[in-house]
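This part of the workshop introduces the protein records we will be handling. To make this concrete, we reproduce a full record directly below:
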Amino acid sequence: MKPGFYNEDGLVTTFDEAAEIGFDIERDYNNLAVLKSTASARAICENLDIKKIIIPEGVTRIGKCALSHCMGVEEIVFPKSLKQIDEKALMYCEKLNEAILPDDVEEISAFAFSHCFELKKVEFNKKILSIGNGAFENCSSLVSVIFPPIDRINCYMFTDCVNLKYVTIQEGTKYIEKGVFTGTNLNILVLPSSVEHIGEEAFFESTLERISLPSGLKRIYPKAFGGCNNLKEVIIPNTVDVLSYTAFEHCYSLDKIKISRPTLDKNPNFGEVYKDLIILESLDDYISTGKTFRQANDYFLNNENILQGENK
């Protein structure tokens, strides 16, 4: 099929003709081809009941808002030449089913696919260097995501993706920023050993039941797991230096927090807030004798001689 705009009856207009209604391919300052459009062009696209768009080879960027609010479009075929998707480029393509990104795409900018309510499938290539804030925010049909090996998962990337249940994060990712998985349907998540930073409200009000925190983790920020009402047990790695006392706020099913004494000493407010749930890492043998972890913890926290011996 040739590049152009299609409805249920077939080709409506080619890209050569689309300039007349406001879609155009222009050259940027690097002489690269960029797909652009006007708001009236997107309205015409809706009026023509466009279902499919095939972007021509040679286009390297989809410009800001270029295809946003093309609410009836179900399929977009991206050219192999594509390298960048700009801010809000496909926002509110409400019926778009999938996004299969070509091998040379390196950047997806902020809110590029946000509010694509019927987006069920996203395939990232291994060359992607960055994905912007809120890039897939409120894609409420999205069920699973396999991340490329990027350094940082930016703020609000999957906020309110209410059906997002399966996530794979690759080794090499260091930062999970603010609000990334807020309001998602995640159940179990294993983080790679490279993760050092879990940002504010990163998993806020998600349905997490279990999470494996990596041994290299250094920082857990306010409300990172706030409102995770299904979370029952957490093991804090002894590498954590910064641990917010609201990290597990309103986790009403949380029954056990296992933590090392040095981490607790660095974060006394956390120890005070969660003193009824905390179990020190060295208590395992004591608990095995029949004491509950709360009983054992009370004994250890109130026995200076034992605590001093633990730190020798």
Notes: Confidence is low (pLDDT under 50) at residues 285-291, 304-312. DSSP finds seven helices and 24 strands in the chain. The first helix runs from residue 15 to 18.
